């Protein structure tokens, strides 16, 4: 576990690799990641289950960052964070259906489908399917964790979750999400660990993980502590490639100072192409 002060984050920002300015980027918006038959049968799915892709036009086989937006599984919309642009990577911003129009568990199904689509299609956008990193903030961090920790979800698409190059949730639930608990009439202060909790799927063979939360005294509910427990149980299970950072002085909305950590993690964990 590490505490990072604001000064260190600023220094990290200046130490990021400089990417040549001549690289040109393109954005493709509103790509449906479910089959047409499903889109035609469900108008809400067709409108929400879409993704945007931002990628370098003249550079192939670049690492990919899949980003899930936050919003408590009840709000928000797909986004490509400005801080991740112009860094030489392919960024996938994912939209998904929201509660209460669907059960919150459907959000996880959508997130998994988007990751599967990315594995199977990202090379057409100069991304490297061997270097896919999954990230997101708050509810998005939870979706990133659930989609990968529960290996059975991607297995339905004939994809091994361990083929993900890395998992970087920002302030994500590791217990059962509070919106799922609310659907059952359970208050947010009552923690539960069941099949909708990343903690339920602790294992030693997961991809490299970087857990980032805000300051334990400023975070939402016990977000730091549940991530710390996830970290500890993963270590006890034998996972060697996991770290946790506490962003000292920052609350739940700690994305801006955390982006440099995400970018450094991607740079350090990308598998070099054999080409």
From TrEMBL:
Pfam family, one: BD-FAE
Listed transmembrane segments: none
Domain BD-FAE-like: 51-216
Keyword tags: Hydrolase
Lineage: superkingdom: Bacteria
InterPro entries: AB_hydrolase_fold, BD-FAE-like_dom, GDXG_lipolytic_enzyme
GO molecular function: hydrolase activity
Stated name of the protein: Acetyl esterase/lipase
